[in-house]
Amino acid sequence: LNTRRELWGTDCYGYGNDTDAVYKNIPFYMGLHKNVGYGVFFDNTFRTFFDFGKERKNACSFWAQGGEMRYYFINGPKLMDVCRRYTFLTGRPELPPKWALGYHQSKWSYYPESTVRNLAKEFRNRKIPCDVIHLDIDYMDGFRCFTWDKKRFPNPKKMVSDLKAQGFKSIVIIDPGIKIDKKYSVYNEGVKHGYFCNRGDGPLLKGSVWPGECHFPDFTNPKVRDWWATLYKGLIEDGIAGVWNDMNEPAIFEDGSFPFDARHDYDGHPCTHRKVHNVYGSLMAQATCEGQKLYLDNKRAFTITRSAYAGVQRFASVWTGDNLATWEHLKIANIQCQRLSASGISFAGSDVGGFIGSPNGELYTRWIQMAVFHPFFRTHSSGDNGDKEPWMFDEKYVNVVRTYIELRYQLLPYIYSTFWQYATDGSPMIRSLNLVDQSDSESYFREEEFLLGNNILVAPVSAEGISSKKVYLPKGKWYNYWNDELIKGKQEIEANTPLDQMPIFIKAGAVIPFQP
């Protein structure tokens, strides 16, 4: 309450609790009035504002800087039903490949090839489970998308094949900026066929990102999306199993984003960037997902995107962006993933340990413990503040981290089944307590505890050096995972939190299948 929020996709490097706007643009909120739950989805891609009692304390309002006043009122009366109907409206996901629900390791950047091979070897030698290695922008030839740096990666196909034999999938990053370079085939094709965005007075839009001066595809044009999809052929023939889209707010260095006079096709309804900005990243993710499907030989596609509009769950998973290695950001990640899940985007996670800065062993361990219960589970770091591989910390932390990553793999049948429920009827995978029992006013402002699926409740440890914490259990009966104590719900309890324990509770009567 007493807040105003803005939706305008922004590359908010090192964002904080009060940063507004951020990366995602989901114009949807839920409310509870006299125990009747409802939702409002304001389907408008312009810069949008939501005012919750800021201007007038008894009024909630929303508006946009253009477009139609088109919104959907979703009657519950249960908040869980609002979530399900919202995804019925905006779309439900396809099941991902099962490996995508495993543990991912990433950094800006793992190179050259010997570094990647050593990373894989360390995971296997230390018996820390890991399914996926991510390659950031330095795998490319001068940051040209869809290329390899042949000095750093002389034989990428063999490297990817060897990693696959060790049980690793490889994911590469692709940004929207295409380097202005007449020797670069992607640039030449884009110019020849008119696939790049123009300025209002005619010339091609230019902006500087990692490769230097770039042009940018107009993903609102179906022909451009189809072309972009075909560009993935080479990478997938090299064995790449998934794609990570970044910088797609869209972000450019000098001005933050595209100028308002940039022109777009918008599926045959030409417009300026003011209408396109918030949906640009989602359309890029759609083209990326469809490109993988063209060449994956009937395997499932896996896409990650940083920027997104409502409905992105049909095409991609998301992460919460360039966060900090702080206890506050562990808390923020917890809240962000709960709210994304309620907004149709369950396949979400954060950069474990914080992208910017160096966590100590305790912070990294506590973050891993929480992220085990987030559908997308990836450690990622900027690389310039020390690495964040699990073995970079003291052995006491490494052992706990290994045990929790093993727990993630043991729980995969449950997590996969929970994903199936989400894909089938739109039930959010992660649930805030108010979604579980909206009649219990004690649940309204609880932001630490959440459920994964129907039957597992966790309360991440988000403060340093504590040996216990208060946890609120909703109605029903709950078993303490660590000692099988049966506890009646609808009360706050004190849970022990030694380093190797995060409070975990299992709903009485549940069957939780484990795998080796």
Beta-strand percentage? Answer: 15-25%
- Computed over alpha carbons, the radius of gyration is 23 Å
Low-confidence segments: none
Mean pLDDT: 97
Number of separate strands: 30
Major beta-sheet overview: 9 strands, parallel
Global geometry: globular
Specify the structural class: alpha/beta
> What's the helical proportion of residues?
25-40%
Span of the ends, CA to CA: 46 Å
**How many helix segments?**
13
Strand order of the largest sheet: 20-19-17-14-10-9-8-22-21
Structural key phrases:
single chain; 516 residues; 9-stranded parallel beta sheet; 6-stranded antiparallel beta sheet; 13 helices; alpha/beta; globular
Short description:
With 516 residues, the protein is an alpha/beta fold. The chain contains 13 helices and 30 strands. Helix 5 (222-230) packs across helix 8 (280-295) and helix 10 runs parallel beside helix 11.
Structure report:
This protein has 516 residues and is an alpha/beta fold. It is 27% helix and 22% strand. The protein has 13 helices and 30 strands. The strands form eight sheets. The protein has a nine-stranded parallel sheet. It is globular and about 70 Å long. The chain starts with a strand and ends in a 9-residue tail after the last strand. The model has no long low-confidence stretch (mean pLDDT 97).
Q: What layout of secondary structure does this protein have?
A:
Layout: E1 3-7, E2 24-25, E3 28-33, E4 36-42, E5 48-52, E6 60-64, E7 71-75, H1 79-90, E8 103-105, H2 113-125, E9 132-135, H3 156-165, E10 169-174, E11 178-179, H4 185-193, E12 207-209, E13 212-215, H5 222-230, H6 233-237, E14 242-245, E15 263-264, E16 271-272, H7 273-276, H8 280-295, E17 303-305, E18 308-309, E19 317-319, H9 327-342, E20 348-349, E21 351-352, H10 361-371, E22 377-379, H11 395-410, H12 412-425, E23 430-432, H13 433-436, E24 450-452, E25 456-458, E26 468-473, E27 477-480, E28 486-488, E29 491-496, E30 504-507
Helix pairs in contact: 5-8, 10-11
